[in-house]
Every structure is written in structure tokens, then in C-alpha cells.
Amino acid sequence: MRKDLSIVLCGQAGQGIQTVEYLLTRIFKLAGYNVFATKEYMSRVRGGINSTEIRVSSGPVSACVNRIDILISLNKGAVGHVEKRISPQTIILAEKETIADDFDQTRYKFIDVPFTKKATEIGNKIYSNVVAVGTVTGLFGIELHTVSEYVKIFFSSKTDDVIQKNLAAVKEGFNLGVGLTDSSKIKFDINDDADIKDQILVSGAEAVALGAIAGGCNFISAYPMSPSTGVLVFLAKHAKDFGIIAEQAEDEIAAINMAVGAWYAGARAMVTTSGGGFALMTEGLSLAGMLESPIVIHLAQRPGPATGLPTRTEQADLEMALYAGHGEFPRILLAPGEIQDAFYLTQKAFNLADRYQIPVFILTDQYFVDSYYNTACPDLSDINIEKHVIKTDVDYRRYQLTDNGISSRGIPGYGKGLVAVDSDEHDEDGHITEDLGLRIEMVNKRLKKLELLKNETIPPELSGPEDYKNLVVCWGSTYNVVREAVKNLGRDDTAFLHFKQVYPLPGQTSDYLKKAKRIIIVENNATAQFAKLIKLHTGIEINDKILKYDGLSFYVEELMEKLNDLLN
User: Fold this and answer.
1) Whole-prediction pTM value?
2) What superfamily in CATH does domain 201-375 come from?
3) Which of 243, 252, 285, 335 falls between 20 and 30 A from 47, CA-CA?
4) Consecutive sets of 10 residues in the chain, 568 residues long: mean pLDDT of each?
5) Total Cβ atoms within 10 A of residue 191
């Protein structure tokens, strides 16, 4: 009688796995259940094997687990794809024809569910995924009317014949699910909560895009590259609603140069990309550094080098974002851990970029942008779009030397002044110079901003006892997994510290670390990049490292086991 259920759907690309995921998560939320979903998928349009995990829980849930309670297998290779996660307690719902001959069914709880047979009777085996949706909702006892209404909305753009066949498919599946619960083959006890219906269900990519809108973003340029494309797609879809120009550039070089030009003209611009795409943007990044141009860069990390694993996850681009671009110039690196963080940090990124006239990064990864769970609507009461553009006078100097390094930023056509910028070293008017003394002043001017940034960092979040002996450190997308793992350990001597700003490093970092007798860092990369950054800026070396770089995120149980091994 579980209070938390892990449902995994597995099949090949093109079989409608994402449709099942989308329908189930929305229907669960409408029914008042806490829900979390994430996916892993191969880099191919059709074929291969993909899987989606949906957790349904009596309490809030926001992290992936290795455990599979119910596996819905939709093709022959599905069970083998996730076999390492299957236990004797796993209930496998599948047709016998989809189980590989070398899989020992006698070792597991296998239930023959005729997904394809029912779909074929309706008219086409393509409806088997919707039969699966009905089966799961029937297991949970969700009202058929609620399920059918949402299916009707989802397929509303289709012909009436297609809508009716999908409604028939979900009803057939629903009856199958009810039959399984009536026969006592599947039992669980998950509580619903009426308040959940009023919450939102958004992915990490959507949260970044919504944060950009809240930050006043009115220009986005990008070349599509997984897993970053979701941000471009969302903003393009809502471009007319919010007055946004969404430009799919011919390549990443063009994309970042367009964004720099947009800021010069007075827009609030953003690019979204992944590691290989950002590698092409580094010259444009350096241009922004020399022009002292604001720019917001969403970098959704994936495994490299080169093409690497295009559809998998990793936190291995921290150092690239930190050191990218030739020459020396300041920047800010933000790394959301929760869906709410993605919204607020992206919104803040636009204000920071505008205020300090620097590049600001939002570091996510495939796991983060493709995961979602129910959460409260963001509080918009303190959201402000801070614009730092002045109306220029005749004697305006774009790069006037100031005590804090920040010059007033004008834009062409707003005022009487000439807004001159140049990629070469320049004087206060923005004209090319080879005055070496002035060169030193201009470098110092740009670097002065870094000192200002150190006074405006976002402090790390400490969870757990304040008198800790052990401190688990993490950053970015590992937040929810680490939080649940540490909580489940139930140790009163262990806390965890999460960084949502990784550069400049918050000033409190050393105090938190020095207080611990033992520090363990958790990172989704092979070389502990954040640990190296911490040592560089604090002198503190973290010897205990839990690293994962197989292209998948950490699972809660996996991390608990590794933490236990180190702590005991």
C-alpha cells in the first residue's frame, strides 16, 4: 500500500510515449495528485527505446527514483531497456508479444494487458498508447468523465472521427485498469489534495521561458539544439502575446551576434543553446565583454565532447561558461535547482545584465529542462523590469570612466548623443585607440564590476541542522535529488548546501564549509568542476566526491547508498 508510486512507460520513439506522459501528468494534477515526470530518450526520430518516469505521491515530489513500481511496456525491447531497474516488486503491464524471449517472466509480476488488441479493435494499433492512459487512470480510480474530457481537449484539433476513437480507446483502457484493481492485483494508497488543482505544471524549459518574459525579454535568437530548444519553442509560440521577436538564426554565431545587436538597439535579448552551440558563440561572448553589452545566455548542458550524447544530461559545461571568450571580462553564472528558481533567476538575469552591462548565464541541463512537477504559481508582487538606459546628451560618452566601472548606457536615437561602440579597444567615446595607458584604464574599468558583483551574490541555501558535522554540497539541477536523499537518510548530523549562483561565488561559502568536519560534493560530471572552483576561490579542497557522468541524472536511492558508504 504505497504512498508514493513510480510508473515507468517504455517504448520506441514515434510510439506516442510523450503523449501518454503529457496526458497522464495533466490528468493526475486535475485529480489532485502530486506528480513529477522526467524522461530519458535516444537521439533518433523513430526507433530506439525511450522511457518516461512519472511519480505520483501523497506529498510533494520533485526528484527521480530508480525504483519502478509499475512498468508499462509498449514494445519488444522496452523491458530489457529498464531491466536493471526492475525488482521482484515491480508490476509489469504488457502484452506477451512485447516481452522478449530471453526475459524470464516467472521471476517478476507480469500481467498480460491487451493494449494493442483493444486499439486494433477500435480501428488502429496507434491508439494503444491512449489505451495505456486509460488503464493507468482506471487503476487510480479517477473519474472516467474527468479523463475523457481532458482527452477530448488534447485531441480537439483532430477530426471528429479521431477524437471519438481516442475516447473509445481511453474508455477501453479505463475498464482494464478498474478490472486490475477489482481483482486486487494492484494496491496503493495515495491521497489526493484539492488544492493541487490550482497549482501549475511546467517543465524547466517553460520556467526559464516564463522567467524571460517576466524579465522583459522581447528578443530571442537561437539555432535549435537539444536540450535547449524548448525555451525557443515556448517563446516563439507566445511571441505575439508578449511582443517578442523570436528568430531562428542560421547558426549559433549569428544568434549571439543578433542578440548583442538587439541590446545595442534597446531590446532585452536572450540566446538559448547547448554546449556545442555555445562553443560557436564564444567570439560573440567576447564581443559582448568588450562592448560592455548586456546579454542573457541560457546554456542547457549535455554530455560532450563534440556531439557526445545529444539527448542526455550532464553538468560539465560550468568551466566552459566560466572561462569562455578571449580576454578578461566579468560575468555572472546562475544555476537553478527548482522550477521556481528557473523562473526567478531568469527574470533576475535580465536585470543584472542590464544593470552591470555584462553577460549573465542560466545553466541548466537536459534533466532539468525536460523534468516537471506541480508547484505553486510564482509570486509576481516583487517582479520588476529594471531598465538602465539613459537619454543621451550631445556630449555623451558611452565608455566614460567612472569610480565603479559602470558607464551610462545609451541607445541610438534616444537623445542627442552618438552611441559609438567598437570591438577594438576604445576610448571613452567608443572610438578605436592604441593608447596603452588608456588600455589599462579600460581593462580596470571593466573588471571593477566584478567587485560590485561580489556584493550582490545570491547566498547558498542550507537545509538540515545548523550544527552539522557533515555537509553535502551541490549546485544546479541536483538540488531536488540531494534534498530527498539527505532527508531520507534521517541523520541529525548532516545538512546540505545548494548553490544557485556559482559565480561569483557567494561570500558566505567559506563560512559554511569551514564549519563542517566532512564535506561531500555531488556533481553530474567527471572532474568535480564546482569543487575546483570552490578550491580556487576559498582554498578549501573537497576530497569526498560523488560524481556521475553516464548521461543520466542521479537517482534518489543511488545517491542515498553512496552517501551512506561515505558517512559510515
Assistant:
1) 0.96
2) Thiamin diphosphate (ThDP)-binding fold, Pyr/PP domains (3.40.50.970)
3) 252
4) 89 88 96 96 88 96 96 89 91 85 74 93 94 95 95 96 96 94 74 93 98 98 97 98 98 98 98 98 98 98 97 98 98 98 98 98 98 96 96 98 97 97 97 98 97 94 97 98 97 97 97 98 98 98 98 98 96
5) 11
